[in-house]
Amino acid sequence: MSQVIFKDFQVIIFDCYGTLADWETGIFTGLQPLLARFPSSATWTRKEALLAFTEIEKNLQVKDPGVLYRDLLAKAHEVMANTLRDNDETSPVDFAKSKEFGDSIRDWPIFPDTCDALRVLEKHYKLVILSNVDRASFAHTHAKLSQDTDLVPYTFPAPNPNAHWLPQTTPNSRSPFSLILTAQDTGAYKPDPRGMLAALDIIQKEFDVGKEQVLVVAQSLYHDIEPSSKLGVNGVWINREGAVMGLETINEAPKWRKRFETLGEMAAAVDTEERTC
Question: Which sequence ranges form a coiled-coil region, renumbered to this chain (predicted)?
């Protein structure tokens, strides 16, 4: 497998949750009140809980790709609650908690290396988000990633259905991102290739950059690295320690061009290459 030469690329497409934000901790923490209620799930390990949940989530994304992600999360929580209740036949589940779980995206933590790494990488590339999320939920994460609690929220020129957000065109923006695309914008949940194809099309039109100069950087092999590779887009795998979600294809032939344990390691490698070239 040939080595990545970072200066060959102009745009990085990031997955957000799993790569920049710790969605596994966010999801597992949010599931705790539900799991603790039932004997069958009270002793689940973190891995068991996350894999059970992600299978439900994936099925719902295929069935209803148009549903907003926060609502899909709430539905997945509800489906898991119903399954556990049917298995154990204990007291009724409080389904109001499902909506609370769906709204918990705003509380999902950012990996400690992320923000500093983004500030390094934005010096060398246009940074793009392509995420299985909805606009309102991502607005909270975006503020954290930008280290700007006063960040202007999404604004789209209605009624244009093809609008997309170029946050760095906002005056005084501290966003590290040149373009943000959510599943709400593309109408598809990854690994459906429509999301990536939409991103590549917009990148070509907005930045005049073809896919050969685009690098996908992500933790999930299933959602990001595998499908982008099939489209001929190079990928860097951020192999976050302890991650269990999105690794369905880990035993197949590698589709990434380079691997790092953290985004901070990748940013350091980019800086080193710049200094030595």
Answer: none
